Structures are given as structure tokens and as C-alpha cells.
Amino acid sequence: MIRVRATGGLLLVAHLALVAWFTLRPLDVPWVSAANLRPFAGIRADLAMGPEAAARAIGKGLLLLAPLGVLLPMAGGRLAVSPLLSLLRTVAAGALLSLGIELLQTGVPGQVVDVDSLLLNTVGVALAHLAVVPAARAVLRRRSEALSRAAALRRRQAAQAAEESTQGLTPTIPRVGIAP
Fold first, then answer.
1. H or E stretch including 67?
2. Number of structural domains the chain divides into
3. CB within 8 A of 73, min separation 6: which ones?
4. Tens of pLDDT, residues 29-70
5. Whole domain around residue 82: which residue ranges?
């Protein structure tokens, strides 16, 4: 379990570094559109461009922070947790990270604040969490329980062997029937 947490933490840091580079680097563009502060206005504009362009733009928004839906619970390393509480905690963390990115973009040349990015990023985190985390936790719980049962059995066998070797076998008295 410690390896899962360490791997999750390492992958989380790597993903956040990639996201920071991708979203917070200055872009050399001839002009910049205005900030979008109306929910779903950008999504409607993407849908008006046609199905292929809309799928690309919306997919990009959904996939940017989606790995956080898996990496945040993985870095937390809890197996026995309420699925709803885990989802809420992960989605809230994803939304706050997305909000932080959008706020930092206000000072980056060529980057524009878009409230639809915040919404799509948050939905992407939620979908990834729902698709992977409950099943992965169930598999890890079963494996952990099987390992703990095997360890308990080995401890019992070792204790029994140690008891038999130090004291010998416990003598048994044959049962004798009582006369009438």
C-alpha cells in the first residue's frame, strides 16, 4: 500500500508540473479573445463550430485534469473510505486546482480565463474518479484482505509449531465409559 501512495504522489507531482507548463506558459499570439465569464457560452461556441472541432475542444477541457480523479485518491492511499465522500473530496480538490489555474492565467500573456474550462476540468475529474477509483479500491481491498489472512495463518502456524516444539504434544486421556 505504501508503494501505491508513493507512486500516486510521484505521478501527481509529474502531472501537475505538466499541467502547469501547458496552461501557464506565455503564448505568442497576434490577438487574444476576451475572457469568458458566462457558463456554457464557450461550450455553445464550440458546438457551433461542428462536431469534430467541438469534440476536440470539449475533450481537451475534460482530459486536462482528469488524471487527478485517479491520482488524488491514489496519493491519499485510503482503501476503506466512503465512495461518496471520496468523490466529493476529489472533485472539490480538482475544482480548486482548476480555479487556481484559471486565476493564475490572468497574468500570463496569451492565456485567457474561461469559466467553461473550470466546469469541464471539474467534470473530467469526476468522470475519471467514477470510472476507475471504486473498482480499483475493491481490487486492492480484496488483495489486502487476502494478504492479511495469509499472514495471520502463517503466524498461527508458527505459534503452533513453536508451542509443540517447546512443550511437546499435549497428552490426551482416553475416554472410559461409566458403568451402569
1. none
2. 1
3. 8, 86, 90, 129, 133, 137
4. 888 888 889 999 999 999 999 999 999 999 999 999 999 999
5. 2-22+33-105+114-155
